[in-house]
Amino acid sequence: MLSSKLSHPLLPSMASAAGDPQHARLVFVSDPDRSSSPGADVAASNAIRTTKYSLLTFIPRNLFEQFRRVAYIYFLALALLNQIPQLTVFGRRTAFLPLGTVLLLTAIKDAYEDYQRHRSDTAENNRPASVLPLRSQQAASTVGKKWKEIRVGELVRVEANGTIPCDMVLLATSDPTGVAYVQTINLDGESNLKSCYAKLETAALAPEALAGAIIRCEPPNLDIYGFQATIELGGDGPRIPLGPANIVLRGCDIKNTSWVVGVAVYIGMETKVMLNNSGAPSKRSRLETLMNREIVVLAVIMVGICSLIAVSTVIWLHSNRDKLDTLPFYRRKDYSKVPPRDFLYNGLGLEMLFAFLKSIFRFQNFIPISLYISMELSRLMQSFMMTQDESMCHEATGDKLQCRALNINEDLGQIKYVFSDKTGTLTENKMVFHCASIHGIDYVCREPLTPGEVAPHPTVVDGQVWRPKVMVNTDRKLLRLLETERDTEAGLYAINFFLALATCNTIVPQVLDTSDPGVKLIDYQGDSPDEQALVYAAAAYGFVLIQRTSAHITIDVLGQRQRFEVLGLHAFDSDRKRMSAVICCPDKSVKLFVKGADSVMFNILDGSFDLEIVRATEMQLHAYSSLGLRTLVIGMRDLSGREFENWKACYNIASTSLSGRADLLGDIAIQVESDLRILGATGIEDKLQQGVPEAIESLREAGIRVWVLTGDKQETAISIGYSCKLISDNMSQIIINSHSKESCKQSLEDAITMCENLTISRTQTDGGSNASAIVPVALIIDGPTLVHILETELEDGLYRAATSCDVVLCCRVAPLQKAGIVALVKKRTNDMTLSIGDGANDVSMIQMADVGIGISGQEGRQAVMASDFAIGQFRFLVPLLLVHGHWNYQRIGYMIIYNFYRNSVVVFLIFWYTFFSAFSLTSPITDASGFLYSAVYTALPTVMVGIYDQDLTHGTLLKFPQLYGPGLRDEHYNVKLFVLVMLDSVWQSLVTAFVPCLFYSATLDDSSLGDIWIISVVLLVNIHLAMDVFSWNWLLLVTFWGVTAIAMGCIVAIDASPSMPGYWAINNLMATKLFWLCLLFILVLALLPRFVVKAFASYVQPDDVQIVREIEKVSKRKHDSALEAPLRSSSDPQQQNS
């Protein structure tokens, strides 16, 4: 009996546990001065601030954030050292130009973004609000205030369709029952209406009577879905418990309610939405991480070059020690002063040190600072074009791709593992009631209702027919049972079954108008699609939920209006895995209705319950799961008067506690949810999303491994695995369901052995697995097993077993276990991981992966808010990875390699010149041209190529998923490419440096030589880039020709300045045929090796991309429609020209 579990001796201990926490907040209704008294730790105003900077802090804080990039500190140190006279290489001001330009552009971008946030904050803080000043002479009316002026304790009135300005406890609404309907789309993206309640004790009071009430609540915290408080209406009155249903959060909209009145408890930056206002986690792309390896190599090369120059300088100085008094760079005496003083020469030791340091300054462009700006600009435009791609737009909702992390676009092209949730991610999360088992009898709902038919009995309210908005198929045999055999045992079980579905939930009925004034539609709104499906099913069988308040619900039961008192509700939690409601029926009997997972429900049955019915129900549950249906078990028990009173006493104490309320209520629920009778079970169908099987097949063909991590039971998950083509009939399944560490270890060893035996041969090619004789293997493991594996020494065994299998399916896993599986792979491999999910339970998994994808589904936007990218459906993952991921990886990888090349050519060019300039580190190229080379002459083309270039078209990449392989094999950025590019830059610098000497012998002055060099290098690197462009459009053509023209104009303009040492040198050069012949010879000879290598690679050893490009060309010429895949519309301008 319940009395043995909820006995009175338990009450004192519960009372002691339910005491107020030490830091409980006291809110005095309509007395903001007292609520905000010194020591109350209350926010001063309701103003919010999402900006990062202020006028005073912008410069120091922005500089601090930018200098977290180590490369910036490197360039700043060089610029500062360049101010020392003995170390000056560039002009003292010129030394700061590159870094200053980068810092300034970034600061302007950050300032603009922060200004937009400031404008948004100002508009939000100045929105109008209505306050009831009960303690003033204007108590009879509301007073207008700005949102930022609201204080804790003030009574706030919000009209219909208004937005809640702060976190406030509801005290009264326009509905006499105290119910209010809110939409939380601004909070979590959910459009379903949710119900909030004012306590009946406060809803019936006039506003003036609320003055003096005291609310004790928990301090501000991050828990959006939790709230614990009590309210005392004055004097020594009882404490009335307040919970999550009694608080409305800032940003929610009031719907279908004329007005609400509440008291502000959390304001401004302490509101729950602001405490949770954190962006997506900061991540760094893999290419940018690998780039550090090459930067270290370049640094080592630079140190070697600088050391060589330093040693050579000492040797030269020693060999010319007798001439140093007259040499312009090293004379030891300054004769302009009397008496003469020592000038530049500092002795061999210091001269070697200074030569080394000056060499570092001269060759600092070996590490290209402009690369960071180029990458950021390209990523920004890539993200914009991805969001405009109509092929990733969800037609039903209009949702497009969202890029929430702009620095990891290229990671989308290197994903090896995809970890996916099931419900709402692979499935639609739109539940349809499919079948039911009641008292051991299976009923399959296949018969559709006729048009206009509501239920066995029409629901008539005030002369109008109310019918559910969603029609549910029914079983005629079950309808006849409810109609003609109500008094039989089977009939009573069926009635209680549907009463449980209609009462044990948090669904709110919303009445909608139709074109027929005599007909209304009932739209059931709620947090859970499962509950909606169950309530619609109950309505189809004649149990129509009409009204819900905080204290009672009204149900039309087979044509008779009945009122049920809601005495208590125990919400679902992951520990109990069930939900229950204590209901007082019209006949004054008290019933406990429970629904939950079969794994827990069968453990709390009455020992005397008919075992035959239990076995029959279990068999039907297994059949439902095999069909891929989501299952729930429905149970109930009758509570005697004493049992109810004991439960009520404990429930009241627990519900008024401010500390540990959830744990206390959970204990009460566990104790009352016992000795149940099974009423039946439900099977709900969650259909696959459009295109899921095809998407998974394409991902696997691309060489991507797809793992599914779900909280559903094993049979359901396996069935969905078959339907989405994750699991096939020819796969061998390894199922691990172990409940001890020893058995887990043995199971993993057996699984590894089995994989080795089943896999006869496997050859890794093209990023996937092609085998001459392979038996595919699927590993299926459940959450209880993972408890004994994760974060133990068994993880290595699980990793070996899982990576040996083609498919991994994890069932009944908790959110943290999902993150644990992702971490398991990340810690043991360098392969890129991606997690995709749609619910709050997927957030930890999304944040753990290298790339997190959120799906904006029916479970809210928690996953979207924590993700790097957001899409409307799972199928959009295919174009995101196989098309945009492929493009972005190829573009950014090439951009990094190209930037290393274009800077190295100039550095090596100056290096060769030092051997002919007494190692003085002077350069024939002017400082202005040197700066403009990186900032203007060659910068824009590489950015435009990084934005618009496409090696293959959208349709081709979708048609041949194997073309995703280059990203998996690091083909566009690797050590081999880096070495080849550096060798090419050495060759091109040698040609550029010495060919003019062959043409002009010794007749060239330094300024003329510098002009030839800068023109040659600009043309070289731009032609080099043009040779690698796959697809041209008018933007690229204008950029290449425009930048070349600008470069020539700038060079002429620099030499046209009388203050320049090379005054008019370029004009004299260009007037001769020898100059143009020399320039042509440099370009041909420098680019010849690259041309030969490209020709050899294209015609002798072509890769997959080159082969498919040739197929594209042939198909265009022959108009072969069989090869041409239908191209979806893309906003990428290059696609139309590729």
TrEMBL record:
<dbReference type="GO" id="GO:0045332">
    <property type="term" value="P:phospholipid translocation"/>
</dbReference>
<feature type="binding site">
    <location>
        <position position="630"/>
    </location>
    <ligand>
        <name>ATP</name>
    </ligand>
</feature>
<dbReference type="GO" id="GO:0016887">
    <property type="term" value="F:ATP hydrolysis activity"/>
</dbReference>
<dbReference type="GO" id="GO:0000287">
    <property type="term" value="F:magnesium ion binding"/>
</dbReference>
<dbReference type="InterPro" id="IPR032631">
    <property type="entry name" value="P-type_ATPase_N"/>
</dbReference>
<dbReference type="GO" id="GO:0005886">
    <property type="term" value="C:plasma membrane"/>
</dbReference>
<dbReference type="InterPro" id="IPR018303">
    <property type="entry name" value="ATPase_P-typ_P_site"/>
</dbReference>
<feature type="binding site">
    <location>
        <position position="812"/>
    </location>
    <ligand>
        <name>ATP</name>
    </ligand>
</feature>
<keyword id="KW-1133">Transmembrane helix</keyword>
<feature type="binding site">
    <location>
        <position position="712"/>
    </location>
    <ligand>
        <name>ATP</name>
    </ligand>
</feature>
<dbReference type="InterPro" id="IPR023298">
    <property type="entry name" value="ATPase_P-typ_TM_dom_sf"/>
</dbReference>
<dbReference type="InterPro" id="IPR032630">
    <property type="entry name" value="P_typ_ATPase_c"/>
</dbReference>
<feature type="transmembrane region" description="Helical">
    <location>
        <begin position="1074"/>
        <end position="1093"/>
    </location>
</feature>
<feature type="transmembrane region" description="Helical">
    <location>
        <begin position="977"/>
        <end position="1002"/>
    </location>
</feature>
<dbReference type="Pfam" id="PF13246">
    <property type="entry name" value="Cation_ATPase"/>
</dbReference>
<feature type="domain" description="P-type ATPase C-terminal">
    <location>
        <begin position="864"/>
        <end position="1102"/>
    </location>
</feature>
<feature type="binding site">
    <location>
        <position position="842"/>
    </location>
    <ligand>
        <name>Mg(2+)</name>
    </ligand>
</feature>
<protein>
    <recommendedName>
        <fullName>Phospholipid-transporting ATPase</fullName>
        <ecNumber>7.6.2.1</ecNumber>
    </recommendedName>
</protein>
<dbReference type="InterPro" id="IPR036412">
    <property type="entry name" value="HAD-like_sf"/>
</dbReference>
<keyword id="KW-0812">Transmembrane</keyword>
<dbReference type="InterPro" id="IPR044492">
    <property type="entry name" value="P_typ_ATPase_HD_dom"/>
</dbReference>
<dbReference type="GO" id="GO:0005524">
    <property type="term" value="F:ATP binding"/>
</dbReference>
<comment type="similarity">
    <text>Belongs to the cation transport ATPase (P-type) (TC 3.A.3) family. Type IV subfamily.</text>
</comment>
<feature type="binding site">
    <location>
        <position position="421"/>
    </location>
    <ligand>
        <name>ATP</name>
    </ligand>
</feature>
<feature type="domain" description="P-type ATPase N-terminal">
    <location>
        <begin position="44"/>
        <end position="95"/>
    </location>
</feature>
<feature type="binding site">
    <location>
        <position position="423"/>
    </location>
    <ligand>
        <name>Mg(2+)</name>
    </ligand>
</feature>
<feature type="binding site">
    <location>
        <position position="423"/>
    </location>
    <ligand>
        <name>ATP</name>
    </ligand>
</feature>
<keyword id="KW-0547">Nucleotide-binding</keyword>
<dbReference type="Pfam" id="PF16212">
    <property type="entry name" value="PhoLip_ATPase_C"/>
</dbReference>
<feature type="region of interest" description="Disordered">
    <location>
        <begin position="1115"/>
        <end position="1138"/>
    </location>
</feature>
<dbReference type="InterPro" id="IPR006539">
    <property type="entry name" value="P-type_ATPase_IV"/>
</dbReference>
<feature type="binding site">
    <location>
        <position position="422"/>
    </location>
    <ligand>
        <name>ATP</name>
    </ligand>
</feature>
<feature type="binding site">
    <location>
        <position position="842"/>
    </location>
    <ligand>
        <name>ATP</name>
    </ligand>
</feature>
<feature type="binding site">
    <location>
        <position position="841"/>
    </location>
    <ligand>
        <name>ATP</name>
    </ligand>
</feature>
<feature type="transmembrane region" description="Helical">
    <location>
        <begin position="1008"/>
        <end position="1027"/>
    </location>
</feature>
<dbReference type="InterPro" id="IPR023299">
    <property type="entry name" value="ATPase_P-typ_cyto_dom_N"/>
</dbReference>
<feature type="transmembrane region" description="Helical">
    <location>
        <begin position="900"/>
        <end position="919"/>
    </location>
</feature>
<feature type="compositionally biased region" description="Polar residues">
    <location>
        <begin position="1128"/>
        <end position="1138"/>
    </location>
</feature>
<dbReference type="InterPro" id="IPR023214">
    <property type="entry name" value="HAD_sf"/>
</dbReference>
<feature type="binding site">
    <location>
        <position position="711"/>
    </location>
    <ligand>
        <name>ATP</name>
    </ligand>
</feature>
<dbReference type="Pfam" id="PF16209">
    <property type="entry name" value="PhoLip_ATPase_N"/>
</dbReference>
<keyword id="KW-0472">Membrane</keyword>
